[in-house]
Amino acid sequence: MPVISAKRMQDRHDSILGAAREAFAQRGFEGTSIADIARAAGVSDGLVYRYFQNKRDLLNAVLTEFYERTMVDLEAIAAREAPFEVRLHGIIHRHIEAFVLEADACRLFISEVRTAADYQGSAVQQLNRRYTSILVRIIESGIAKGVVRSDIDIRLVRDVIFGAIEHRTWAAVNGRPLDIDATAAGLVQLLRFGLMARPEGEA
Amino acid sequence: MPVISAKRMQDRHDSILGAAREAFAQRGFEGTSIADIARAAGVSDGLVYRYFQNKRDLLNAVLTEFYERTMVDLEAIAAREAPFEVRLHGIIHRHIEAFVLEADACRLFISEVRTAADYQGSAVQQLNRRYTSILVRIIESGIAKGVVRSDIDIRLVRDVIFGAIEHRTWAAVNGRPLDIDATAAGLVQLLRFGLMARPEGEA
Amino acid sequence: MPVISAKRMQDRHDSILGAAREAFAQRGFEGTSIADIARAAGVSDGLVYRYFQNKRDLLNAVLTEFYERTMVDLEAIAAREAPFEVRLHGIIHRHIEAFVLEADACRLFISEVRTAADYQGSAVQQLNRRYTSILVRIIESGIAKGVVRSDIDIRLVRDVIFGAIEHRTWAAVNGRPLDIDATAAGLVQLLRFGLMARPEGEA
Amino acid sequence: MPVISAKRMQDRHDSILGAAREAFAQRGFEGTSIADIARAAGVSDGLVYRYFQNKRDLLNAVLTEFYERTMVDLEAIAAREAPFEVRLHGIIHRHIEAFVLEADACRLFISEVRTAADYQGSAVQQLNRRYTSILVRIIESGIAKGVVRSDIDIRLVRDVIFGAIEHRTWAAVNGRPLDIDATAAGLVQLLRFGLMARPEGEA
DNA sequence: AATGAATGAGCCTTCATTCAT
DNA sequence: AATGAATGAAGGCTCATTCAT
């Protein structure tokens, strides 16, 4: 039987997590100390270790929370009934948005977690897979409907989309804002008909 | 008259640089200590500072050396006389190769340097620009020849290509090998004609 | 509720401060390492930084403590109702005593702090000013009472007294003892009537 | 038989010594590295050790040179035939001048040498004794001539003069200039007749 | 004679983590 | 349950001194 109420525990948990998100975003993982986080959360250093195993665990928790929050939106878009192009555009648009609005979390993931030795097989990797698989399912349904070429390499398309957005957004992270609408539209257009000029000028 | 021969100095320089490349690749920048590098290079801690200003400088040197080495190949490909598709394929192929063969350097760049606060305006950023500009010039020449649609967003294409390869190769970095030829061919194909199925079935 | 008692904290503080005073006195500021001090105080290196901001701060604390302790006596003497000569003698005597009994602190101040670039405007300089101003006020009251020549340069007198004692005591610091009474008496005598032989033989 | 000429050796010696004086003056003893000095002197690090045993020895040499240079003037003043007051004033004036013009050397002596463990019995201490003994001889001759009270403590007078000047000049070292003439005159006046107001108003 | 490459000890400070209170 | 004092290892960097060339 807990000595403090479950709600109080949840509040503590959340404020530590929030403080960590903030701090990691601003100063990076190595640049943030547990004392920083504890102070921002209004608790003692020691208490952090009651809620999280260690600093690394806290980082994972921050990213897990980000993924789960963002994924709700993406899955809603994927579940919607709409033509292939609309759903593709929707998911690309929302993903760019996530990158732009939560650039800090993305940067954390890219520079601190994805490269870590223990990333393979981690919970965060599972989440990342679920995240990207949403896009994969959309493309699969496009193929099923005959809108997308069946000989396409789905995983390659996935990497093209996520990779392009990551690259694209990076500049925006440090400085001038990114035009989300234009970028989403441009990417969809490029994906639909490719680079090549065509006599018939269809695209 | 130098106290040691130029060759000996070059050797020292190279062994420190090599040890640093190895160590950074395996344990990351923060995870590597100067003592680690010195030990691996068979020199004293202090000597590292005779050849490199500080730890950060050593990281820059590792990446500069990688970029310059790889860029020689890329520029040769870009300079070749060949149809657009051939040159595009060539450069994509070589870039994937670089990623696969020197995954360590790429990982370093991505996770330690590109995200650093002082990346903007740094020498490494200059090199990265030169690197990516090779691809940009190929696309421009494709437009000039009328092979590529003139309304294409070149910077978006660049981000698609580099981003896709980065994402794609990531899996290969940790574990199973990547089929370089297939990946290059698939990416070129996707870029040429896009995702969409076509009645004429040209692609 | 504090984790350890206030007394225990005070003890820690004092033992670190004491160890620092001892170590600085024996080996100078640069010659003393934090590890030396921690070992002598029976604590870990890290704990020193919980009680003092850094090494420099520790030095300031040592000197502040010395000044404040000594100043209590000096101010009591200055506040006493007594003829000018008595008060002058009292303060000179006590100042010499401080120099002799706490030669280490004086040496520290003279050789490590007063010459430092950041001395001007520092807290220690404030204390030093308060310290010397006690003497200045006594001389001023001597002038007010008509016992001391009104055309005297008070700051020069101050420098004569403190400078002389500093010089004088220096020998005593390293080796043979100084006769405090004789020195105080001699200095007062010299200050009262100067060097010159006088026909009337008054002095 | 030396492989290089004695003159060349002397030049080397002097340029190293000069570079050291400059560097110590500007950055202090601890703040100056042998490499700094070697660079400024236009020689290699190693060569410094052919001319001086170690860094400490170099500091001693700098101060010895200063003392010897200044002492020539002082001894000339002491040797002059003149009334006591004139000679006393002359030597005080010249000493203040030395302090003001070569504040750096004085600061070095005060903060780096006089406090060192090996000062007692050192060559620099010998020089310091010779330096101060010049003043002592002047006072003795004043006593012999009956101008100075015979019951005066000569060593105390010496400490008063040198101590006062040291204290006085210190402020001048960091900032506003010191009026050498006024200070010398004021000190002589104070020493001659003391602090006390006198009915006859002789002083 | 002269160089300067090489050494390696040393130092201040930070901080994740533990545990007595 | 909560605190925060305490630990102690680790790390980047400097520099006096030596000695092979």
UniProtKB/TrEMBL annotation, chains A, B, C, D:
<dbReference type="Pfam" id="PF00440">
    <property type="entry name" value="TetR_N"/>
</dbReference>
<dbReference type="GO" id="GO:0000976">
    <property type="term" value="F:transcription cis-regulatory region binding"/>
</dbReference>
<feature type="DNA-binding region" description="H-T-H motif">
    <location>
        <begin position="33"/>
        <end position="52"/>
    </location>
</feature>
<dbReference type="Pfam" id="PF17932">
    <property type="entry name" value="TetR_C_24"/>
</dbReference>
<protein>
    <submittedName>
        <fullName>TetR/AcrR family transcriptional regulator</fullName>
    </submittedName>
</protein>
<dbReference type="InterPro" id="IPR050109">
    <property type="entry name" value="HTH-type_TetR-like_transc_reg"/>
</dbReference>
<dbReference type="GO" id="GO:0003700">
    <property type="term" value="F:DNA-binding transcription factor activity"/>
</dbReference>
<keyword id="KW-0805">Transcription regulation</keyword>
<keyword id="KW-0238">DNA-binding</keyword>
<dbReference type="InterPro" id="IPR023772">
    <property type="entry name" value="DNA-bd_HTH_TetR-type_CS"/>
</dbReference>
<dbReference type="InterPro" id="IPR001647">
    <property type="entry name" value="HTH_TetR"/>
</dbReference>
<feature type="domain" description="HTH tetR-type">
    <location>
        <begin position="10"/>
        <end position="70"/>
    </location>
</feature>
<keyword id="KW-0804">Transcription</keyword>
<dbReference type="InterPro" id="IPR036271">
    <property type="entry name" value="Tet_transcr_reg_TetR-rel_C_sf"/>
</dbReference>
<dbReference type="InterPro" id="IPR041490">
    <property type="entry name" value="KstR2_TetR_C"/>
</dbReference>
<dbReference type="InterPro" id="IPR009057">
    <property type="entry name" value="Homeodomain-like_sf"/>
</dbReference>
